[in-house]
Structures are given as C-alpha cells and as structure tokens.
C-alpha cells in the first residue's frame, strides 16, 4: 500500500478549486475537503446567533460553540452545523459578505485548522484539500501543492453564472476583488501561494484540462518518491 497522497489546492474565489478538487479526488479515489465551506459554516452560525461579525473579540468568544462536520466524500459533499444541514445557507450572499471578517479571527482559524488536519490524517488513501492556506499553513508537507489563478473577468463570469443572474457580473467582480483583498491582507495565514506550489492559470483552460494537469502532477510526484 502506498503512502496517503495529500493534494493542497489553493487560490482565490472562482478559480475552480471546488470543481477541480472534487473531480481529482473522484478520479484518484481520494477523500475531499472544502475548507471554505467550514469558514462559511461558522460564519452562518455567528450570523444566525446574532453575533456581531465585525467584533473580533465577540467572534473569538463564541468560536468553540458550533459543532461543524464536513463530509469528505467527493460524491456527496455537505456540511452540518449542530446536526443541521447547512449546505444551502452557507452560499447566501449574506454569508459571502461576512466570511472574510470571521475567517480573519485567529481563534476561528486555529479551530478550523485543527479540524482540517484531523480530517486529512483520517483519510485512508489520502485527500484533496482546497482553500486559501492549505499549502502554506494547514498541510505544508502536502505531496502536491497547486495554486489556481484566473482573470478577475473569468472568475466573475463563472460566479455570476452560478448565482443565476441575481447579481450583475460587475457587482460580482467587485465583491470578489474585495474578498480577495481582505483574504490576502489579513495577518493570520493569508491567501498566498506556497513557495513550492505549482501555479495553474485556468482562465483559458476547461475544467477537464485543469483536472488532467493536477492528476498528472500527482502521478509525477508519486513516481518520484
Ligand atoms: N476551467 C474552468 N472553466 C470554466 N468554468 C469553470 C472552470 N473551473 C470551474 N468552472 C466553473 O466556475 C464556477 C466556480 O468554480 P469553483 O470550482 O466553485 O471555484 P472556486 O472553488 O475556486 O470558487 C463553477 O460554476 C464551475 O463549474
Ligand atoms: N482555507 C481557507 C478557506 C476559505 N477561507 C475563507 O472562506 C471564504 C470562503 O471560501 P470559499 O472557498 O467557500 O469561497 P469561494 O471561492 O467558493 O467563493 C474565503 O473568502 C476566505 O475568507 C479561508 O480563510 N481559508
């Protein structure tokens, strides 16, 4: 039996992290973890419980309260908060607008990182973990690290397609750029490319081409060890 394979996929919003990570995990028979969904889930809990998300001390004080459980099955991703399915509500625009503030709180990050490392350690064949700080902080010894990028225009067009026209492409793009700036500028484990990560610009690539590239990188790394 070969060693578990750990694949870290980081990058800004709309670069294709979730779609790529799920497909790579499915193809390689690995587990899958969406760490953004965990930050969204704790943000949803804070908003639902009347916590002022702009008050870092209040957020820190409540951080240990919600039980957040994420599926690691790429065929059935999902997340519960205190036993309630939160997969839908965590994608609301209210949560999207508040998530960067909550995820910048060091106590929140410490708790999430602990849960994420435990999930990776428990994955039998290995795992694909996607987020903002996986290669730099959560799993710095990952077998393969990928940093996905794409133009702001492509990312906004993709996201606004998903939102089904409820927000204009221009508004979506402005919101993405604001979130990138907040995520890249925070003190604790900001969005960043690890020095040893391979950057893949997905602007002109199909999802299948991106998946092929990542699967190829994993095969190369496995052959080398
Ligand atoms: N290479 C690609 N080309 C075109 N659309 C893509 C590509 N990769 C992902 N998408 C689409 O873009 C949207 C955002 O992708 P997603 O995987 O959720 O990105 P992220 O997790 O980085 O925010 C989805 O609707 C997805 O189907
Ligand atoms: N490893 C991670 C993953 C997400 N996040 C935060 O969670 C937010 C939502 O992440 P996401 O991956 O669901 O975002 P999208 O790219 O899907 O819009 C990000 O904007 C970050 O603020 C983080 O801080 N660290």
UniProtKB/TrEMBL annotation:
Reaction catalyzed: dCMP + ATP = dCDP + ADP; CMP + ATP = CDP + ADP
List of residues binding ATP: 11-19
Keywords associated with the record: ATP-binding, Cytoplasm, Kinase, Nucleotide-binding, Transferase
First-tier enzyme category under EC: transferase
Localization terms from the record: Cytoplasm
Pfam families per the UniProt record, alphabetical: Cytidylate_kin (PF02224)
Swiss-Prot/TrEMBL GO biological process terms: nucleobase-containing small molecule interconversion; pyrimidine nucleotide metabolic process
GO molecular function terms noted in the UniProt entry: ATP binding; CMP kinase activity; dCMP kinase activity
Top-level lineage group: Bacteria
Protein name: Cytidylate kinase
Organism listed in the record: Actinacidiphila guanduensis
């Amino acid at each position: 039996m070969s060693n578990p394979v750990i694949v870290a996929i980081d990058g800004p919003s709309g670069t294709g992290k979730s779609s790529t990570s799920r497909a790579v995990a499915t193809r390689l028979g690995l587990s899958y973890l969406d760490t953004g969904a965990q930050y969204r889930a704790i943000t949803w809990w804070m908003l639902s419980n009347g916590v002022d998300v702009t008050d870092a001390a209040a957020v820190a004080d409540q951080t240990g309260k919600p039980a957040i459980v994420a599926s690691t099955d790429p065929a059935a991703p999902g997340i519960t908060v205190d036993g309630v399915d939160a997969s839908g509500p965590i994608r609301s625009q209210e949560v999207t607008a508040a998530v960067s503030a909550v995820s910048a709180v060091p106590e929140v990050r410490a708790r999430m990182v602990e849960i994420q490392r435990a999930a990776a350690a428990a994955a039998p064949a290995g795992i694909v973990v996607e987020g903002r700080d996986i290669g730099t902080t959560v799993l710095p010894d990952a077998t393969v690290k990928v940093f996905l990028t794409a133009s702001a225009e492509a990312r906004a067009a993709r996201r606004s397609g998903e939102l089904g026209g409820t927000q204009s492409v221009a508004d979506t793009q402005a919101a993405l750029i604001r979130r990138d700036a907040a995520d890249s500028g925070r003190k604790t484990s900001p969005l960043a490319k690890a020095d040893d990560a391979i950057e893949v610009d997905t602007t002109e690539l199909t999802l299948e081409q991106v998946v092929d590239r990542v699967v190829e990188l994993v095969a190369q790394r496995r052959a080398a060890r």
